[in-house]
Amino acid sequence: MAEPMDEDDLRSLIADMWQLHMQERAWLDRIYDYTKGLRGIPAVPEDAGDEVKDIAKLSVLNVLAGVRDTWTRNLSVVGFRRSTARENDPAWTSWQRNRMDARQKEVHKPAVTYGASYVRVLRPEGGRPIWAPRSPRQLLAVYADPSLDAWPEYALETWIDKTGAKKRRVGHLIDDEWVYPFDLGDIPQEEKDPNRSQPISPHDFSEPYRHGAKYDGEPVCPVVRFVNDRDADDQIVGEVAPLILDQQAINNVNFDRLIVSRFGAQPQKVISGWSGTGGTALASSAKRVWAFEDPDVKAYTLDAASVTGYTELLDSMKASMYERAGLSPAKNGKMVNLAAESIAMASKDENEKIIDKRESFGESWEQLFRLDAEMDGDSETAVDEAAEVVWRDTEPRSFSQVVDGIVKLAQVDVPIEALLPMVPGMTQQQIRAIQEAMQRQRAAELTAMLRERAAGRQVPDAVAG
């Protein structure tokens, strides 16, 4: 076993990794701000009035968050077992213990947004492994070969400690054997956003400790990466960054629409050849009939500007953005009153992309289950090598269509219990209750048959078979 690093080497490594982390954070923070609608405000001249500047701030029509949420709503893990098993693998208890039914969104959302997210696993002394979802803004993982390696060489994690009277920035460095806790000092009160500022150099190290993480018997850095999509050039690709220019264009068109709505939507009254005081001009604007003694004075009304063209353009731009994102045309509101079969056909590309994400995330969840099992080796947690993640079915299908298919499969002796998860809207608890009820019914039928045989009665061949 390797000895822990000395403080000089540790300080140098943390400084290098933090510099790399800050370079990535500049890009990640930009994605974060656009997803939250904090960036993309249309530019206005410096001498523009406050009203125009306020309209510019209101013109951010955030579509990116909707794109992100559409993908994550279709990513929900509901089990971990063999395809032929009725019960979840014993390793599923670790999922429940870490409350991942609710917290899995903390993994899927940043992965879809930035392209990657992480789950860091540490086991407190005398306790069970704890899963901690982390976004790439919170944790930096360094790989020898990012495209091939399943485990990082090092992971650097920092956070704000709010337990004391003053906020402090703390963190730890993790390698394949050791956890190195460190303190970066108090956060000055003048820092408006402590998560984005450059921290001071580590000046206080706590005693390092072994984390004991192993995979296939080999020590590993206990950080599992979840990748949204891969590209040969960019390595990791999120769903937000490719759509930022589309979001900027939508904001600018919406700004024009709000300007027209604010300043041009009401009829404008014009009087040429006359100048009056503010009071007389205001009184004239309220009149339906105007009369002027000077024959050269003319008054007329300009038609109100229409925002219909801007609204139609925005609808077209949002539809194009959904298409670029790979989402179904049904998301743009143009496909209404269609049968489930028609919607399913229109959602083919979206469903295929969801399948890609599930395959990528599923491999990472399975890796996490096996890591947890080895870290918790003295428990009953064991992982079946053939077990795999089960995803909640979100593909649009009509209830009657699915039931008809199940009936036809049951007629050729396919066990109906295995087909129940295909029924739309049926929860795991409902499926379990139906399966148990069917088992009780079969047990009752078997008991009745045995009793009849014991009584010497003739049992019909159909029942005996």
UniProtKB/TrEMBL annotation:
Residues 185-211 are annotated as: Disordered. InterPro entries: Portal_protein_SPP1_Gp6-like (IPR021145). Pfam families: SPP1_portal. It comes from the Bacteria. This is Phage portal protein. It comes from Nocardia rhizosphaerae.
